[in-house]
Specification:
Helices cover 14% and strands 39% of the residues. By secondary structure, the protein is mainly beta. A hairpin with a 4-residue loop joins strand 3 and strand 4. The radius of gyration is 15 Å and the shape is globular. It comes from Streptomyces xiangluensis.
Length: 162
């Protein structure tokens, strides 16, 4: 095991679901690489695997939606992380509403925002999408905790990892 892998294995950060619509196609996937990256102006970076259908749709998208799931939403994480949109219509299996530009916004998540795509960063097997928030919502603070990386360790990726 490399020092970097040992470092990464110790992290337990929230996971997110990213959704997108472009050229008449919807897509969405669970992402584990995502973070705020600027305060002023507010910016958020999400990294999409180049093997993922969501990446293929997002390449031509103007906006992406980023959703923070609660620990009680493991089944939703399993749908967006363990299935591939190449074989399954994920949006037929969950409740959502159209957001700005028709981007699917998943119902009942802890928080979500839609961001305008400001640019891309090629990092190898993932491409970063730099987002500028356009709109979003967050539930009132409750005892619901965010779904984290260790909570989804049992989910096998719906697309190949290499």
């Amino acid at each position: 095991m490399t020092a970097m892998q040992s470092f990464v294995d110790r992290l337990d950060h929230p996971v997110f679901v990213v959704t997108v619509v472009a050229d008449g196609e919807q897509a969405g996937c669970m992402v584990t690489f995502a973070s705020p990256c600027s305060i002023k102006p507010a910016r958020f970076m999400v990294w999409l695997s180049t093997l993922n259908r969501t990446y293929r749709v997002a390449r031509s998208a103007d906006h992406l939606a980023v959703h923070l799931l609660g620990r009680d939403q493991h089944m939703l994480a399993e749908l967006f992380g363990g299935e591939t949109g190449d074989r399954v219509d994920k949006f037929a299996r969950t409740d959502w509403t159209p957001g700005p530009g028709g981007v699917p916004v998943l119902d009942d998540t802890l928080a979500w925002f839609v961001g305008r795509v400001e640019g891309h960063v090629d990092a190898g097997d993932h491409i970063g999408f730099l987002l500028s928030p356009v709109t979003g919502e967050a539930q009132e603070p409750t005892e619901r905790e965010p779904l984290c990386l260790t909570d989804v360790a049992d989910i096998t990726a719906g697309h190949p990892v290499s």
